[in-house]
Design brief:
The chain is α/β, with parallel strands linked by helices. The protein has helices at 13-25, 36-45, 62-72, 86-94, 107-120, 158-168, 177-184, 192-207, and strands at residues 5-9, 29-33, 50-54, 77-81, 99-102, 133-135, 138-141, 146-149, 152-153, 174-176, 213-216, 220-223. A 5-stranded parallel beta sheet has the order 2-1-3-4-5, sandwiched between helices. It has a 4-stranded antiparallel beta sheet with strand order 6-7-8-9, with helices on one face. Strands 10-12-11 form a 3-stranded antiparallel beta sheet. Bound molecules: calcium ion.
Length: 227
């Protein structure tokens, strides 16, 4: 297996040390930064496979770091934080973090999460669905990460795009909440279905017609061209 390159942005020396020891024990390559600015500068220089991001950093909030990173980088981000409140989780995930681990966590769990987000990021298995998806006037371009209805381009957050792509890839089919969550977020955490609802509501609004996405009571959602 090739060496994974991990960028760790964490100001707590003890936590960073434990993480570095665990990752180096499986022969991964860890670059450590203690500040948000330092982390973003590193990110601009090198190709990393996964970023581990603390939220409580001395110079800026980790949420801001994630937001900045997302404007230019596709690299998977795992937030590692003592802040377990749902608002932090929702915000981090909406701004493009791929997973969220609340401290304290076990190192085996951390390794498993890193492998999972890396696998999903497409480096190990190219997504077969890289072709443009069309459903009536809706087009979703997975490679360019653009979506439009008719001539108007939709301005979507990364996760809204992922949810839309997921639903549009199999129009007319009912997708279970759990499978959407598992595919788009690859995780189960308390309150996550509320996040999914928020994303669906935002998509309906941005698509200009709520009938694009139908709620199937007790099951999930279905995307189809409004009649
Ligand atoms: Ca911290």
């Amino acid at each position: 297996m090739r060496v994974m390159k991990i960028l760790l942005i964490e100001d707590d020396g003890a936590i960073a040390g434990a993480i570095i020891d665990s990752l180096e024990a499986v022969q991964w390559d860890v670059t450590h930064e203690r500040t948000g600015q330092g982390g973003l500068a590193r990110l601009g220089q090198g190709a990393f496979d996964v970023v581990l991001l603390d939220l409580g950093l001395p110079d800026m909030d980790g949420i801001e770091v994630a937001r900045h990173a997302r404007t230019s980088q596709e690299v998977p981000i795992i937030v590692i934080s003592a802040r377990g409140e749902e608002t932090d989780r929702v915000l981090a995930l909406e701004l493009g973090a791929d997973d969220y681990l609340v401290k304290p966590f076990g190192m085996r769990e951390l390794l498993a999460r890193i492998r999972a987000v890396h696998r999903r990021s497409g480096h190990s298995s190219p997504r077969p669905e890289s072709e443009i998806v069309e459903v009536g006037p809706l087009t979703v371009d997975p490679r360019g990460r653009r979506a439009q209805v008719g001539d108007s381009e939709l301005t979507l957050t990364p996760k809204e795009f992922d949810v839309l792509l997921y639903l549009a890839s199999d129009p007319g089919a009912v997708h279970r909440r759990e499978t959407i969550l598992a595919d788009v977020w690859d995780m189960n955490w308390y309150g996550s279905t509320k996040t999914l609802d928020a994303h669906i509501a935002a998509l309906r609004k941005k698509m200009g017609n709520p009938d694009w996405i139908e709620s199937v009571r007790g099951v999930g959602f279905r995307l189809q061209e409004p009649q």
